[in-house]
Amino acid sequence: MRVGLVCAHAGSSTDGPTVGTQEHIARVAAELAARGHEVRVYERRDAATQPALVELDGYRLERVPVGPPDPLPTGELVPYVAEFGRWLAGEWSGDWAPEVVHGHYWVGGLAAAHAVRATDIPVVQTFHSLGVEQLRHLGRGYAGPGQRIPLERALTRAVDVAVAQCNDEVDELTRMGLQRTSVAMVPTGVDTGYFHPDGEAAPRDQRPRILSVGGLAPGHGQDDLIRAMRLVGDAELVIAGGPPAERLAGHAEARRLRELAERAGVAERIQLVGAVPHDQMATWYRSADVVACTPHYSSAGRVSLEAMACGVPVVGYAMGGIADAVVDEVTGKLVPPGDVRTLGVTLRRMLTDNAGRFAYGHAAVDRVRCSYTWERTAAALERLYERVIGRRRPAMPVEPTPPVEVVVSERGPVEAA
Known about the structure:
By secondary structure, this protein is α/β, with parallel strands linked by helices. The protein folds into two domains: 231 residues, 3-Layer(aba) Sandwich (Rossmann fold), CATH 3.40.50; 163 residues, Rossmann fold (3-Layer(aba) Sandwich). It is 37% helix and 18% strand. About 2% of the residues have low confidence.
């Protein structure tokens, strides 16, 4: 099977896909290639020094030369969607054309749909997050571009199947108008060869450690954890994420969190360590007694899964990918989103229950290894691709129902028959 994976962001984009999402695309590509498929990944070239073509782990990465050779915010990529699609269509008119195209993120999906609109190549789409759902959960903290939500809604009518990464996302996609048969649930995977209980742990003192991992921005839930620490007792909260440690002093959200910790009387128990390279995250997970996952929105639940793979129980908000990953009272504890008091009491009880944490940690490792490996993710996508390829038929010589074509103009999205 020939598979094209399209992500219109660039790998080095400052506000495009996170490390986790870039890893998702790369691991899916590598796993599919290992299963004997021809895989090509397409992302935007955002630096003149980047090679246009790279061979990686059995698949080909092609950087598409559209737009300026500089990192761009997501909203500024929209004017280049049509050009990106035309470039792909030109590439696929030669000796190699995909049998199925898989768009990633809404901008990548728009480019993929544009590229195949005159063909019978099916399109699978993974949004990784949905603007309408982020807006609902984050409220004023939502900072997505204005055209995102209407374009995502239009895109759902231009693809064959949308891939959801959690059950909440399945429900959201059906509320957006997709038939349930056009939504497939395929959760993200975890590298269990790297994230596992055995190995080095980051240094720590004798106090129990709670670890929080995520970007430093409103909506990631670190403020809830800081408030909850008043109920936890003598434990430290380590917050990993944001800019490098040397730039934390000038970071607005880091300053806000530190001021909040001062007002809450827990400043001496809060440690912000800044950005941690992904290849060092396992040591930080292993150093923790509990990993707290309290974002106000999370589609994949990546942090909870990585922590569980390292044998660390998770206390998290019962929403999105976290609710799917964590089995309450088996691999950790789930609490109502935003309930700071219950969060603090649950963390305190978890930290004082050594036997319970041990049992939760073992169950967590088993759950990840049974249900959340990259091999399982790739196998599920392989079956999905085969299904959509088999379902597509060449156009019949009768008047068909006009398909939805997504056209992007300066005034916003327009749907044209």
